[in-house]
Amino acid sequence: MDEDLLTLREKLTKLLMKSDKPLTVEEMAIFLGLNVNEYKRIYNELYHIAKTIRRKTNNRLMLYMAPPVCESCGYVFKKLEKPKKPSKCPKCKSERISSPKFFIREN
Fold first, then answer.
1. How many Å apart are CA 36 and CA 54, to the nearest integer?
2. Of the residues 14, 52, 78, 89, which has the fewest C-beta atoms closer than 10 A?
3. What is the pLDDT of residues 15-35, one digit of tens each?
4. Which tens digit of pLDDT belongs to each residue from 35-91?
5. For the structural domain made of 3-106, what CATH number should be given?
6. Per-residue pLDDT at 36
7. What does the angle CA 37 – CA 101 – CA 74 come to, to the nearest 5 degrees?
8. Helix ranges restricted to H, the chain
9. Nearest partner of 45 among 31, 25, 60, judged by Cα
């Protein structure tokens, strides 16, 4: 299939399935030639990919997220409802937060 005809969601799914390591939203944007303004859109698409991929593969494939971590105190953001990069650590108030990383694997 021609890459130009794929939707952003399809391109992200394909990228995450082919990648041999977890990717941040920033890395995905670079691979797909997107700019900084698209980060929020990518996080939104990842939320939908997680639901769709499980349903389409009968829970065989899953989108996993390595959670973001505060680089100052080590706090791990485990309870995120939707994929995103938090702006501030609730523990130490630092804004030095690592980006979450995403990957698709068999369950």
1. 28
2. 78
3. 999 999 999 999 999 999 998
4. 878 899 999 999 999 999 999 999 899 999 999 999 999 999 998 888 899 999 999
5. 1.10.10
6. 79
7. 105
8. 8-18, 25-32, 39-56
9. 25
List the domain boundaries for the chain.
3-106
Q: To which residue do tokens 């938090």 refer? A: 86
Residue 24: name the closest of 80, 100, 88 by CA.
100
**Secondary structure (3-state) at 63:** strand
- Cα 19 to Cα 35, 88, 94, 104: the distances in Å are 20, 29, 31, 9
Helix-helix angle 39-56:25-32, to 10 degrees: 90
User: What is the rounded CA–CA span in Å between residue 63 and residue 65?
Assistant: 7
Amino acid at 33: G
